[in-house]
Amino acid sequence: MTDRSYLPYQSARDFQDRGMAKWAGFFLSEHSSALTRKAAEPRRLAELSLRDKLQLLSQAYSQQIPICITILDQAECSSMQGTVFHLDSRQVLLQEKDRCRAISLSQILSIQAKGGTDDGSVFV
């Protein structure tokens, strides 16, 4: 308790500070909105450099290795599987079962080999 006996007014000497209780509503709303924002943001994986993406995709293209690509599309992470049909400096065409999908290299978060060797080799 704080000694306020030096104050001239009785009301000031008897004042009971609510401490952190007066800030609790503010902190709770800020905290909950921050948590909501964080939940809405996709969890970023270790993002590859453009050079690494091109190297891994060209390797998958030349060897026709089936791959799984994780992409960031409209604030959502999604994965797709297929083989590299075409590759250039801006995008990759991924041949899925019955269609070909264009993916911008800037959207790619990770690349994994599917099938291939049994030692679990993975592109990351």
UniProtKB/TrEMBL annotation:
Source taxon at top rank: Bacteria
Name of this chain's protein: YolD-like protein
